[in-house]
Amino acid sequence: MIVDFAAATDPGLVRNSNQDSAYADGKFFVVADGMGGHAGGDVASQLAVETLSEALLDGASPQEAIVAANHRVFEAASRDPALEGMGTTVTMAIVNDAKTAVEVLNIGDSRAYLLSRGELSKITSDHTFVQELVDAGSITEEQASTHRARHVLTRVLGIGNYVEADSFQVPVQDGDRLLLCSDGLVNEIQEAQIAELLAAGDPTAAATALVNAANAAGGSDNTTVVVIRFSAESGTRQLVDRTDVARTAFASAPAVSGNLPRFKGQIPAPLPTQLVERSLIAPPAIRLIGFVILLSVVLAAVVLAVSVYVNHSFYVGVSRHQVAIYQGRVGGILWFKPHVVDYTSVRLDQLTQGVRDQIIHGVVEPSIAKAKTFVHNAESQAKAAKVAASPASLLSAVA
Ligand code: MG
User: Fold this and answer.
1) Which residues, 6+ apart, have CB-to-CB distance to 192 below 8 Å?
2) CA of 240 to the centre of ligand 1 (A)
3) 234 and 350 part of one domain
4) 288 and 174 belong to one structural domain
5) What domain range includes position 288?
6) Which of 35, 96, 361, 375 would you label with 61, given CA atoms 20 to 30 Å apart?
7) 68-81 pLDDT tens trace
């Protein structure tokens, strides 16, 4: 079985920000719809999607990944007052290794649908107040869709210490399509239209058509969809087909001008095309250029500092048995090698053994004048020692 897919997300025509996040990599798929204030919803859905994808890629079970994501969002909210009360819905799908079945898990009112043999079925059950009324037989599905409390969630990831996801095993066969979506889609268009658009074209075309249809119907919320297609093995089909929405039809709408559709969360290679590349590739590229410039400046400063240091360093050493004064550090620093700035007339063998040993290792002096003084003193010391060792001086000492 071949699994190919596309993901699309759009802020819609009313909201200024997109608090939905998504992840898709061919095996794991997630849609999350955040809530909780201006910043909170955005952060909650992103944190959840990141944590879920990281945990699943690390080999965690779906339930373990849910626990980790819940913990992370809850912790982040309790640390930052600006994020207090944030949470997110989550609908995720994990394709089994044989690609014959999908495990679907959900919390909240983002949904999963399966289109099989032309028939659309809702896999998930919303965790909403109105769904409980429907389940209890108090209202119909139709009444629920317009009920004024239809947005009240009864289960959200990240608002408590513990959350449980519903889990569904969904066998898939050749030609099936799975849809994960945020409520921005289902609040705008009917399931019959969802089935029609989900079936048409490749996953990219279907994902684009679904988001565009939600916007055409009002676009009152952020809309995110992930379309996954299952096909029997065949020659050369592209294994990974993924893109964001090219929202040309709505590009002039004032509510979304300057707001590129985004695909948030962690997206592994291969990278998707066009708009996604602009939003994900360009900023790191700019950061890289900034980093290179900063690194160059730091390196230049280091080289300058070393150069100044070396030019103010001197030592007394030896060059071809002759005592010489060097500029630089003994042994050199980086590519700054020491060089002779003054050859003295003193040979190494004219000096006392102790001074010779010092000079062979290099006698560091703070200036060329101090270095010359050292040589002069060494020479005087050697002469004095020689006189002291001669028989004449011994005699005069006895006398
Ligand atoms: Mg929503």
Assistant:
1) none
2) 27
3) no
4) no
5) 282-310
6) 35
7) 999 999 999 999 99
